[in-house]
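Fold this complex.
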Amino acid sequence: MALLGETGRLDRRTMLKGAAALGGVALASPAIISARGETPVKIGMVDPLTGAYAANAQNEVTGAKLAVSQLNAKGGILGRPIELLVEDSANDVGTGVQKARKLTERDEVSFLIGDVNSAVAQAIAQVSNEKKILHIVSGGHTDTITGKDCKWNVYRVCNTTTMEANSICSTLFEKYGKKWYFITPDYAYGHTLQAAAEADLKKLGGTTSGAELTPLGTTDFSAFLIKARAANPDVILVLVQGSDMVNCLKQITQFGLNTQVHVAGLQQELEALEGMPPEARIGVWMFEWYWKQPGVSGVDQFVADIRKVNNGKVPTARHWFGYTSVQTIVGVANQQKTLDSLKLAKALGNFELPPEVRLQPNKCYYREGDHQLMTSAFIGEAQAEGKDDPEDLFRVDKVIAGDKDAPPVDETGCKLQWPA
Amino acid sequence: MSAGAAKLIALTAVWALLAAAPFWAPLVGGYTALGARVLVLALAAMSVNFLLGFAGVLSFGHAAYFGLGAYGAGFALKFLAPSTPLSLLCGTLLGGIAGALLGLLIVRRRGVYFAMVTIAFGQVLYYIAFQWSSLTGGDDGLRGFARQPLDLGFAKIDILGDETAFYYFVLLCFALVVAVMGFILRSPFGRAMIAIRENERRARFLGLAVERHIWIAFTLSCFFAGFAGALYALVNNFADPRGLHYSQSGDFVMMAVMGGMRNFWGPLLGAAVFVVVQDYLSSVTVNWMSFIGLLFVLVVLFFPRGLLGFIRRRAPA
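Structure:
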C-alpha cells in the first residue's frame, strides 16, 4: 500500500490512520518521563485486587501507599523517592507468577511485596528467589513460606497458620468443647491451618469430627453445612476467608445452624465482618491487628491517617500489613544505607519494628532463624453492632505476643540456604 | 508482483520480526519474557486452529491437553531427570496420548456436541488436577522445578538465567512445530481435512474415513497443544490446574478467532494482541477483560475473517 493516498496527497483517511497509529504507540509504551531529580527506587507489589480476597488486597495496597507517601515526604529511601508498582494477581497462582515476572523483568523492581493468597505468595517467592531480590510476604499465612519452603530473601509480616492456631485453640477448646468440624479452603492456607489446629486439638485431648475442603471462591456452602450438621460436632470452625467467609457465615445464620451448634473459627478479618449482616457476626476468633488499642502509642495517629485515604473507614489488619511491609524495606535500607538485597536480608534478621510502625503493645521483630515477624494475636469475640463506632465489630479480650505462640525455629522445618 | 513473491516477503517479514523481538520489544515497552509467552500461547492457539480452521471442528477443551503438557514437563523435571528436552518430550506425550484416547470418544460427535464433549472431558481433567493435591499440588500449583541449561555436547546454553537465550530456544521450538504443522497441512492428509471441513457428506461419499481423519487431526492437535503446554511450564517454571480450565480453552479459541481462523498465521497475531493487551491493561485496570471482550466483539462484527483476514483483504493481491 502506498504511504500516501491514491491521489498521491496526504488525504483524510491516511491522516486518521496515522493519528490512530500514533495513539496506539502512545498506549503501547508508557511515555518516557525524563528524570526528575533522583531516579525512584521501585517496589513491586502483587496482590489479588479481584476475586475472593479483593477487599483484603485493596486494603493492603492502601496501607502500602500510605507508607510510601509518608516516607517520601521524609526523604524516601537513601534520599531517592519510592515508587510503588501494583499488579493484580487475580487470586490465581499462574497470573501471580506472570505478574511477578513482569515486575522483576520489565520494571526491574528492587523489592517485591505480596500476596494475600498463600499459594500465590509461595509461587512468587520462587520467582523473587530466582531473581535474588528481597521479598516481603505481606499477607499469605501458610506455614511453609517461613517453614520448609523458607528462602533467604523472603520475610513475612502476617502470622503463620501455626501461630494462629496456637494463639486461639485452647480458648476455643475451653469455650466450645472437644469435637471440632472444619470448613477449610482447599489450598495451601487451609491445608496448613487445619493441620495446625488439629495438632493443637489432639494435644488438648479433642477429636476432629470431620472436615470439608471447599474450593476458593465457593459461593454455595449448603451441601458442606448439611454434612457438618449431620456429624454432630460441638463446634463448626470456619477457616475460609474473604468473600467465602462472608457467604459461609451468612448461610450458617440463614439455616439457623448457629442455634444448634457453636460456630467460630481461627482467623477473622474486619473486611469480612463488615461484609456480612449483623446476625452473622458471631463466635470467638483471632484478629491479627485491631484498630482500637487504647494506650498504645501511634495507633490513633495511624487510624486518623488511614481514614483520610480510605473514605473515612478505619484501618484493618491488611492496611497494617501493607504499611509494615513498605516500612520494613525502607527502614532497613535506610539503616544499612544500601539497596543490596543480600545485605538487607541479612540485616533484617532480628530487625525490630519501631513503635510508630509496630502499633501493638508487644515487641515486634523478625526472627532470624525463619524470617517470620513475631507479631501479636488479638483474641476476642465478633460483635453484631459496633458500640462507639459502626466499625467496632470485634471485642479484644487478650493480646498474645508473637513469640509466645510461634513454634521454635527448629520445629518450623526452615533451613535457610544463603547464596555463596 | 506475483502472489508467490508477496507471500515470501510476508513470511520473511514475520520471521525477521520474531527473530529481532529481543531488540525492538523493549523500545515499545515490551520485554523478552513477554515475547516468549506470545510464542507459546500462539502455538496453543494454532493447535486449536489446526482443528477449527482446517478440519472445521471446534474444540473448547484444548486447555486440558495444554495443561497436561505443562504438568508432564513439570513432573519430568521434578521427578525424572533435570533435562529440558526430556521435559518437553514428556509434556508432549502426556498431552498427546490423553488427547488420542479421549479423541476416540469425542470424534463421534459433531458441531455443538463436539464442543460440549470437549469441554466436559477438559473439566474432568481439570478437576482431577485440582483434587489430586499430593501429586499436582492442587490449587497451589506444581512448584519446585526449573528449566535446565541445554547441553549440546560442545557447549552449554544457559536458558534459565539468560532470558534472550531462552527466547531463541522458544522461537526455535515454535519454528519446528510450525514447520511440522505446515507440512501436515500441505500433505494429502491436510487436503482431506479441508475437504471434510468444506463438505463432510461429500467427503464421505468420496470414500474418506471421516471419523478416522478427524481423530488423527484431533490427536495431532493435542500433541501440539501438549508441546505448547510443556513450553509454558518452562516459561513460568510453574504449572497449575487453571491451565486446564475451560476458560483457558476459551482464551485459545478467542486468540484463534480474533487473529483469523482458517488462516495459518492468524492465531499468532491473535495471541500477540491478546497477550500484549492483557499485559498492558491488567496493570492499568482490573477490568482488562472487558476491553478484550469489546475488542473480540468488534473483530467478530466487523472483520469476520479475523485481524489477519482483514489485513490480507486490504492488501493488493
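Strands of chain B lie at 150-151, 156-157.
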